[in-house]
Amino acid sequence: MKNILKAFGNLNRDRRSKVPLLIIALITIIGFSMAACGGGDNDNNNINNENKPQTPEAPQPFNDITASQLVANIKIGWNLGNTLDATDYGEGWLSKTATIQQLETAWGNPVTTKANITAIKNAGFNAIRIPVSWDKAVDANYNIRTDWMARVTEVVNYAVDNDMYILLNTHHDETTFKFKNSAIDKSLAAFKKIWEQIADNFKNYNEKLIFEGLNEPRTVDGEAEWDGGTSEERANLNKYYPIFVQTVRNSGGNNNKRILMINTYAASACQTAVDGLVLPTDTVANKLIVSIHAYTPYDFCYPYSASQTPNWSSTNSKDTGEIQSAISPAYNKFVSNGIPVIIGEFGSVDKNNTSARAAWAEYYVSFAKSKSIPCFLWDNDLTYESEKFGIFKRSNNTFYFPEIKDALMRGVATTPPTPPSQGGETVKGSFNAYAGNSYNSLSSSVNYQIVDLPGENKTNVMKVVNPGEWAVALYDLSSYKGQNKTITFSAQVKRVGSAGTLNWQVNNSDYPSVGTPINNASAEIWHNMSGTWTGTPSNDSPSFFLSTYENNSASTTYYISNFTITVN
Q: Which of 267, 316, 404, 563 makes an SS bond possible with 216, Cβ 3.0 to 4.6 Å?
């Protein structure tokens, strides 16, 4: 089971867990036996074995709308997870000569049927994301097996026949698509070759088929895998997308105007990943979508951390605030500037907490809708092991959790009450005149200044030097003294030097923390911090402040960027 444990600030994780290897081995053996003997359920072996893909012979009528117009038509989407994307991650147990059925069912899910997709459409989902691993079905020159292309085409056609919006991508191909300088040239050549074949095969489909260049592009087990990557990795990611766009545009059919989707580093919703994404130049205007993934709050959505919880409530401002904070960076950079965004994956595992999951799902998609961002639920059909994201039972086309399905449909039919991040008093991207009033246990005062970091594309950054144990007030709350208020903030912080604990607090009678502190934060990496606090500022001079304590030394420097605070 390849699970990625939580590191602070991560909003998405590798959730397509493999079935334990013993089970995989059994599945593979059974699959080979069934293939040899013709055994198995006939419905689950409903694969067209003809190698010629059933694609339109001529370009279909194409509604030439903008990406924003298309995204506005997506109600809610569903992921066909752990199926065509099943892979061995280059470990070798899934043979290149495996049958198509074995490639599709390698992680234990049944063969996809048209009835599956029809049931999803009838349940209210008008869009589907079809994750596909291609690396497992290519030769040494990256030629895709004809029978694998035909099977992917067949599944796409199930969705076409149901008049759905379709996201088709490259998924789990990180063993081929790499992001370090040492491997980038070979990776880009492979990426181009694979997309030439995909684009050519699907070139005549109408506008409802959207190509997604990658999935969660990243260096697996890299030092900043889920924190936006390193500058080298982000720069190399941005080399993929011009190739993607040019390759599709040059492939004929309807592809000269097809809408395309690109991902942030690791599809992370964090500020570093969002800021690091550079939109490629396109030959046609307004045809690009940005995709992020956000499994948040992490402790609710996943079972791994010591602080994991089955509880979530729409009346808890901390719970709702984490969803708002996750969506804000992409909304602020892209949606508010006319570039549409899709949340390509979100979900929460079953912890015997159906009511809480339903409430979470309804709020999540409702809030995202208020930001003009449609969501695609991750569904791996798993109801055992740790990553139990399954809600739809593909073996009989029913829902394990109809309450969650119904909540999703309610959520996209409504928008939530005005969230704390709208209205009120907001300071965005700057520190007000109060910044720098400090409380410091050292004899010397805090040395702070506002600087620009052009090499990292950041301006108006607070640099705090020689802190020791210190606190620097960033926002004056005196005008709210005695009033019940909700404070929501987000920021990025980078440490240079000795480790310590970083915390955001309200200078109140009990000095409450806002959000989760960072303990011994990794150096030279931007960490995303956010949180919400509801209470009554009560000290003589209440303020919102940043503090460090415990083992910080005089050699430590902190950089604080993209600070936003809202008071309601």
A: 267
Query: Does residue 371 carry a pLDDT above 60?
Result: yes
Rounded Cα distance, 93 and 189, in Å: 26
In the residue annotation, 225 being an active-site residue is answered as no
User: Domain range for residue 284?
Assistant: 21-53+67-413
Nearest-5° angle of CA 356, CA 359, CA 360?
85
The model carries a pTM of 0.72
CB 191 within 8 A of CB 177: yes
- Which one is predicted more confidently, 426 or 51? 51
Q: Are residues 154 and 291 in the same domain?
A: yes
d(CA 384, CA 250): 45
* Catalytic-residue membership of 387: no
> Which residue among 174, 233, 345, 362 is the active-site one?
345
Question: Could you tell me if 406 and 473 lie in one domain?
Answer: no
Query: Do 407 and 430 share a domain, yes or no?
Result: no
Among 104, 216, 233, 362, the one annotated catalytic: 216
Looking at the DSSP bridge assignments, the partners of residue 426 are 566
pLDDT in tens, 373-384: 999 999 999 998
Are residue 131 and residue 226 in the same domain, yes or no?
yes
The number of domains in the chain is: 2
Determine, yes or no, domain membership for 11: no
pLDDT in tens, 101-150: 999 999 999 999 999 999 999 999 999 999 999 999 999 999 999 999 99
Residue 403 shares a structural domain with residue 511:
no
Query: Which spans in 64-144 are helix H?
Result: 67-72, 100-104, 114-122
Q: Is residue 10 part of a domain?
A: no
Same domain, 400 and 273: yes
Strand partners, 473: 545
Burial classification of residue 440, based on how many CB atoms lie within 10 Å of its CB (0-12 exposed, 13-18 middle, 19 or more buried): middle
Do the Cβ atoms of 434 and 567 come closer than 8 Å? no
Which CA distances in Å does 550 have to 91, 409, 547?
44, 48, 10
> Rounded to whole angstroms, what are the CA distances from 384 to 17, 378, 388, 420?
11, 16, 6, 37
